[in-house]
Amino acid sequence: MQLGAWSDRVRVTVSTSSDVLRWPAVGRFLRWSHARTSLQLILLVVAAVLVLHGLFGPQVAPANLATVVSWVQYRGWLIIAVLAAGNFFCTGCPFVLVRDAGRQMRTPLRKWPRWLRVKWIGIALFVAVLFAYELYDLWALPRATAWLVLGYFIAALAVDLLFTGATFCKYICPIGQFSFVAATVSPLELRVRQPETCRTCHTVDCIRGRRAESDPAVVTRRGCELALFLPAKVGNMDCTFCLDCVQACPHDNIAVATRVPALELVDSRRRSGIGWLTRRRDIAVLSVIFVFGGLINALGMTGPARTMEQSLAAMLDARSEGPVLAALFLIVLVLVPLVLLATAAALTRWFTRTSRPSMVSIAATYSYGLIPLGVGVWLAHYGFHLLTGVLTVIPVTQAAVLEVAGWAALGAPMWQLTGMRPGVVFPLEVGVILIGASGSLALGYLISERDYPERPVAAAIPWALVTVAVATAALWITAQPMDMRAIAFPG
Ligand code: SF4
Ligand code: SF4
Hints:
Bound molecules: iron/sulfur cluster
């Protein structure tokens, strides 16, 4: 490991007060060597319960834990946790716990092929999950949801028993890719506390893993499986907050530090395990899919989506929903972003009177600036479902216990418990979309200031217009009444 090449990139010392690991109770818990396992065990039990109830419980979505926990609770809490703290749902990921158990029996020997060390598979699976969710109305299907969760466990296990490191997390997991992008606007980040300590560190256990003194071939604490070398780590992209590096570092030199959210998206330094963000076309595409995926996911259950599908069905003379939905996805996830980003990139070149960099590079660079708006859209949508149904998990759990135990151990199901009224949640949805849009406007200007110091305002104007256009679409979708998306097809 060539530490010298990276050492001048580590500049800032983290103060004790801004290091969550030094905070009284939460810090002690996170530094505990079994902190991750305890979180994983909790989520493993939750996953087991929802799979069993999904497979064998009532096949009515609002009365089944598989659908209520997966589509109402889990998604909402995930995005809230990422925004409030960091990628802590990856910390507690039960798939990794099962994988680790599997690796006790079989050690993977193969390395993930170099040409696949990009996000394209993760992006394709992310789109596939969004598509399947809309096509099959997964939110209404407890058994299918349970199979999806089981399939996830099997896929994570199969991939990581074949390939070393955290291959599934880094390159394949669609939830992981979603969380990595969202975590760029988190207020916390793993980074070194004292740069000087790293400059004189010879073991670099944070990446290589801590070795047994008696036998250096034996790893007693694993290093970063995501290939993020702490002295050169920038931001949260690809970090699962697993805290392995914290446990491995022999100098106790890693902090969970507070920071300004989203500023990492303007950081042009080379990142360990990633390279230069501006050169990663796959991550730029992931960011765009994240933003516009938020729109189509929110659009899915509204009346206008049904009208659009009916028009498309008539135009395509479609006899099933698949091709119609595929056309809608093509329009919202590909054509609209392509037109918006290409136009904005061309205008930026024109306004700044430059011929370089290429339009693709400009679009890729500025696409990261749209992430805060995308996070606002996802939070508005998932927050709506969570807040309007936050208490439904109580009667569903009571009913499940009654069903299994034969008596009301948790009391009779209180079906009157639901959540906040949609009218009360609506202003909150508008608020988070506007906050996200403000963040994107600010990032667009900061990127312009960095790349076009002579004409930052001119360079930023097209991207401000893109932000306003996407935010307007998001607000319009949010204002639409919910509608069960189901259209009749002949045959
Ligand atoms: S093991 Fe600790 S001190 Fe050494 S390089 Fe990694 S973070 Fe720095
Ligand atoms: S840097 Fe690596 S080891 Fe440390 S928390 Fe992030 S993913 Fe885990």
